[in-house]
Structures are given as C-alpha cells and as structure tokens.
C-alpha cells in the first residue's frame, strides 16, 4: 500500500495529513474538524482527477438494490476483485471487507496479505469486496444528508449477505455461493466490526469470521483512544506532551493576555475559537495509529514528533510575555514548522476554524469522500474523542476537546434534509445490540493489537464491561503484542522475512481457519 506521503497534500498540511491514511479522508480516525477541513480542501483540489488505480486482479460488478428493506426501484454496482491463483474447486471463499475506503487500495492484501495467506493454505478463492458508497460502489449522485441515508450498517450487512448468497463469478465454474461453499469473512477496524456482525447476523451463510482490531463497541465518547497512546507511547515523550497540554490549558483560561500569548507562541494567533486551537495541537498524535511493522508502509512521524520535543528537562523560556516550560516551547516550535507557518495569521480561521468557517463543511459533490465515514460516525458509531472523564488522569489532549466540540463535525456537515436528519447523538445501540465488547460466536475470531489506540473499542478493551475470554480454536481470542491497528492484515511476498510475531499470528490464523474448515459440511450432507 502506498503511504500517506504519496497523496496529494498541500504544503502545511503535513502534520494534519498524519491523521489520514493513503485512502485520504475515509479512514477511521479521531474526529477533528481540522482533519475534515483538510480532506474537504484536498477533495476540491483533486476533483475531476480520476484516482489512478492499477488493479492487478480482475474487477467485477455485482448488482445491489439501493435499499434492501424497501423497494426504491434503484440499483447500483458493487465492485469486487478476485484472486483465483490458489483456488481449487471445493475450496472456500476468503472475502476481505474493504470497509471505509476504496477497494482498489486493498489489492496488496489480496496479493501478499492475509487473504492470500488464507487462500494459499486452503485452496481458497480470494475476494476484496468494496463497501457501498466507497470507491466506485456509489449508489447516489451526491453526498447530501438525504443522499447518504442508505449508508448504514444494516444496508451494508445486507449487501454482503446478498453477495455471498447470490454471486456468480465470471471464469469460476460451479456454484460458489453459501451455504454450499464455506465463506470466511475477514475485516480490520470498522471492517473488523463488520466481519463480526456478519457472522452473528448471517450465521448460515458466513461460515467463519476474523475480526481484526474490530471496533465492535460503538461509543459516543471515546476517551480511551488518546489514553492508550498516553500509556503505550515512549514515556519521556508522553511526559513532554502532558506538561504542554496542561500548561496550554492553564494559559488559555487564565486571562486574555496569557490566552493570546500562548496562541502567538504556537504561531496561531489567528485562530479565534480556542477549541480549534487546542484541537490543532493534537494533530501529531494521530500518527501513532499509522505505524506498521512493515517499513514500506510504516509512518514514523510520531517518533519524529517525539524527537522534536526533546529529552526531559526543567528549563523554562520566557517569550511573548509568558514563561513556559521548554517542553511547551519545543512543542510550539514543531507546530510552527509543520502547521502554522503555512497559513498566514489573517487566514487561520479559514484554514483551521470550525464554527468560524462553517462553509468549508458544506460541499456535497461526489469528490467529498470525507463525508462518508464521518456520516457513519455521526449516525451510528460515535467515537468522539475527548480527554479521560477523571480529571486526575493525565491527558495528552486539551480539556477543551469536549464531545460537544467533536460533534461540531456532525452538525456543521449534515444539516437536516427533507427525508433524513442525523440523530442528536450517534445511535450507538444499533452496533452494541449485536454484542459490543462481548460479541461472540463459534468460528468468530477476535484479533487485536496491544498498543492499538482503538483497542478500547474492541473485545480486548481495558473497559471493565469487556469480559476476558479463553482463547480457543473455535473462538480464537488473540492480542498481538506491541501491535497497533490490524497488523495481521498485511504480509510480505516472502513470509519468512516478516517479523516473528507477525509470522506467528499469520500461522495461528491459518491453523484455526484450517481447523474450522475440517468441520464444514454442505447442507445436503447434513
Ligand atoms: C461496473 O459498473 C459501472 C457502473 O455501472 C460501470 O461503469 C463499469 O464499467 C462496470 N464494470 C465492470 C467491470 O463491469
Ligand atoms: C503457501 O502454502 C504452502 C504450503 O501449503 C507453503 O509452503 C507456502 O509457504 C505458502 N506460501 C505463502 C506465500 O504463504
Ligand atoms: C442530490 O441528488 C439528488 C438526486 O439524487 C437531487 O435531487 C438533489 O437535488 C441533489 N442535491 C444537490 C445539492 O446536488
Ligand atoms: C439472493 O437473491 C434472491 C433473488 O434476488 C433474493 O430473494 C435473496 O434475498 C438474495 N439473498 C440475500 C441474502 O439477499
Ligand atoms: C477577552 O477576550 C474576549 C474575546 O476576544 C472578549 O470577549 C473579552 O471581553 C476579553 N476579556 C477581557 C477581560 O478583556
Ligand atoms: C512560532 O512562530 C511565531 C510566528 O512566527 C513566533 O512568534 C513564535 O515565537 C514561534 N514560536 C516558537 C516556539 O518558535
Ligand atoms: C530546550 O530543549 C531543547 C531540545 O531538547 C534543547 O536543545 C534546549 O537547549 C533546551 N532549552 C533550554 C533553555 O534548556
Ligand atoms: C527536574 O526537577 C525535578 C524536581 O526538582 C528533579 O527531580 C529532576 O531530576 C529534574 N529533571 C531534570 C531532567 O533535570
Ligand atoms: C485473561 O485470561 C487469560 C487466560 O484465559 C489470562 O492468561 C489473562 O491473564 C487474562 N487477562 C486478564 C487481563 O485478566
């Protein structure tokens, strides 16, 4: 997969870009108005430029109804890619849920990642299935609130079920639909939650699922995301961040002199709404999630940021009429160089503002793909990022980043339509009623990463409501040590070159899927 650095990003957007994956705005990520704005600007700049995709696997369409639950008379084409390099008749289908991004960017997973690994081990047919509204599987003419109303978990699950139940694949002889053929459904992150949901909702046609870093617990407020980074990132670096955040919060609220001074220190005097300023300061933290064991797709910028903060010291610096710690001065210097310098003070509300620049959230043409995952956040998933509820817990983000602030991305982006209005707060119960932290089923594997900031929303959450489980073949429950976000998803052409702990999880996945398949009997054989 190309790294985010190859994307078309304007100068000055670098630090913000750290929050975006190669597929731009559509990645699951902390909700942050600046990220949304950056994505909106990027979309506008690149509108009309076709995404250069070089699929190395044949691409097909599958016809889906726009609405599975009431007849609108409309259909759309859902894209999928097929790898038959390991397939032998009678083998299973291993399907990858492409989730909240274009399917064509998932080709490496079909080529050398977990789909190829499992297909190789089982004589399976590998498939990447694009999610409705993403990539080119777009059923509507624009992304207004009304047009987005068929983008929800229930429609997406019904798409996959219809596909598994009814697909015929050009060039593949015989019937490979379920339940005559065993289907193994793999997904990571949001896709991981989808994989778990598919097993629970359609157990008769989804033979087994692997939910990797699956965010099966939806939550309006997600304070664990940044708290996990605080606990697992290098502690000297964390101490510098905690000190800066505390100092900035104090200066912002002490009086107008200190408030203006601290913004000036960061080169951001032009941001008038304080939470926008505080939010921008959290931008470098998103890079924690973008790390990978494979150097070719790793984003090392979290460590660049830490290096810029320097080692622990007790020095102070007096500037702009305030005395600040050297930690804050170094943090300010980093923000200055990566963000502030590229947007003149007079334009900073336009560059970085939320309520001070509502216009930037209002475009609805099909290039505004940032509207898709955000819509899912605002309607069913939540994950509004805040500091920990207990004020005694150290924080690496400002206390100004309330859920009300994060929720501005919802109210500014999705005004009520004629047919649909987003709920006052995300309806997370739609997700959690399927099991949440404790979602479980035979042949549903739960794989998570120990250092993953999303772990708080997975069955491996430290939340006391998440029950500990025993890891068994029929219900695998595995935590990959030191891993961040779905680190089992990608692989190398030469598996022996993967780090040992990645070879181990791949081997374990092959083992349990192979064991599962031994128990498969087509319905006629019952
Ligand atoms: C899939 O459907 C789209 C939209 O109708 C069409 O433009 C495209 O050519 C189709 N692709 C294939 C491989 O059939
Ligand atoms: C494919 O499977 C064979 C054994 O079934 C194994 O020797 C080989 O290493 C596998 N290849 C990959 C790329 O995993
Ligand atoms: C969005 O598309 C619908 C048709 O699907 C159309 O009725 C509506 O006017 C469009 N709105 C905008 C703002 O383009
Ligand atoms: C498969 O297609 C048939 C015929 O269109 C339809 O009735 C059925 O609901 C589809 N299966 C699923 C799971 O949607
Ligand atoms: C501080 O600044 C705010 C916003 O610019 C202003 O409304 C307020 O009157 C100022 N307070 C004082 C004490 O000057
Ligand atoms: C950041 O840039 C601003 C504007 O150029 C400057 O006033 C401020 O001192 C700089 N801060 C640091 C820590 O270098
Ligand atoms: C502040 O930290 C930087 C980076 O570690 C260091 O180079 C600088 O000397 C420190 N400043 C003071 C006043 O100690
Ligand atoms: C900072 O000050 C504390 C308390 O005065 C002291 O324990 C610590 O060693 C100092 N740290 C450094 C890096 O000088
Ligand atoms: C969860 O249970 C496993 C054994 O089933 C045990 O090894 C592990 O320490 C437990 N974890 C926690 C956090 O209690």
UniProtKB/TrEMBL annotation:
Q: Which residues form the signal peptide?
A: 1-27
Positions of the UniProt region annotated as Disordered? 452-471
Source taxon at top rank: Eukaryota
Q: Which GO terms describe its biological process?
A: proteolysis
Is the keyword Hydrolase in the record?
A: yes
Entry annotated with the keyword Glycoprotein: yes
Record-linked Gene3D superfamilies: alpha/beta hydrolase
Which keywords does this Swiss-Prot/TrEMBL entry list? Glycoprotein, Hydrolase, Protease, Signal
Q: Which Pfam families match?
A: Peptidase_S28
* Listed GO MF terms: dipeptidyl-peptidase activity; serine-type exopeptidase activity
Q: Which PANTHER family match?
A: PROTEASE S28 PRO-X CARBOXYPEPTIDASE-RELATED, SERINE PROTEASE 16
**What protein family does this chain belong to?**
Belongs to the peptidase S28 family.
Report the protein name in the record: Peptidase S28
């Amino acid at each position: 997969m190309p790294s985010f650095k190859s994307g078309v990003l304007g100068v000055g957007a670098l630090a913000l870009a750290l929050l975006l994956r190669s597929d731009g705005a559509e990645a699951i990520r902390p909700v942050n108005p600046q990220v949304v704005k950056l994505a909106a600007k990027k979309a506008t700049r690149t509108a009309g430029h076709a995404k250069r995709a070089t699929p190395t696997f044949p691409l097909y369409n599958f016809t889906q109804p726009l609405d599975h639950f009431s007849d609108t008379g409309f259909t759309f084409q859902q894209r999928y890619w097929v790898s038959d390099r390991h397939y032998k008749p009678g083998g299973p289908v291993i399907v990858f849920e492409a989730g909240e991004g274009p399917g064509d960017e998932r080709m490496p997973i079909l080529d050398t990642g977990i789909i190829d690994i499992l297909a190789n081990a089982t004589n399976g047919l590998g498939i990447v299935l694009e999610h409705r509204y993403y990539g080119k599987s777009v059923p509507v003419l624009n992304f207004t609130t009304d047009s987005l109303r068929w983008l929800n978990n229930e429609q997406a699950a019904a798409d996959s079920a219809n596909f598994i139940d009814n697909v015929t694949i050009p060039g593949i002889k015989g019937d490979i639909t379920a339940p005559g053929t065993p289907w193994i459904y793999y997904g990571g992150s949001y896709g991981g939650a989808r994989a778990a949901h598919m097993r629970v909702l359609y157990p008769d046609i989804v033979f087994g699922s692997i939910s990797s870093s699956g965010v099966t617990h939806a939550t309006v407020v997600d304070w664990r995301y940044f708290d996990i980074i605080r606990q697992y990132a290098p502690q000297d670096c964390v101490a510098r961040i905690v000190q800066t955040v505390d100092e900035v919060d104090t200066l912002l609220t002490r009086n107008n002199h200190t408030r203006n001074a601290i913004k000036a220190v960061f080169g951001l005097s032009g941001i008038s709404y304080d939470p926008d300023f505080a939010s921008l300061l959290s931008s470098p933290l998103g890079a924690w999630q973008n790390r990978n064991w494979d150097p070719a797709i790793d984003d090392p910028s979290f460590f660049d940021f830490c290096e810029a903060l320097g080692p622990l010291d007790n020095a102070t610096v007096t500037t702009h009429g305030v005395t600040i710690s050297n930690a804050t001065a170094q943090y300010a210097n980093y923000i200055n160089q990566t963000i502030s310098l590229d947007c003149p003070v007079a334009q900073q509300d336009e560059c970085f503002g939320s309520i001070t620049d509502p216009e930037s959230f209002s475009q609805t043409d099909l290039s505004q793909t940032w509207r898709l995952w955000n819509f899912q956040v605002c309607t069913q998933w939540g994950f509004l990022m805040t500091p920990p509820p207990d004020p005694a817990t150290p924080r690496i983000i400002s206390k100004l980043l309330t859920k009300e602030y994060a929720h501005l991305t919802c109210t500014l982006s999705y005004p009520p339509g004629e047919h649909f209005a987003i709920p006052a707060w995300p309806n997370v119960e739609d997700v959690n009623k399927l099991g949440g932290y404790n979602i479980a089923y035979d042949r549903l594997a739960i794989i998570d990463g120990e250092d993953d900031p999303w772990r708080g929303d997975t069955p491996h959450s430290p939340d006391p409501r998440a029950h500990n489980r025993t890891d068994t073949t029929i219900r695998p429950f595995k935590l990959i040590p030191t891993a961040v976000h779905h680190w089992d998803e990608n692989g190398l052409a030469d598996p022996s070159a993967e780090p040992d702990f990645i070879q181990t999880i791949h081997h374990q996945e092959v083992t349990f899927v192979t064991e599962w398949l031994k128990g498969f009997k087509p319905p006629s054989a019952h």
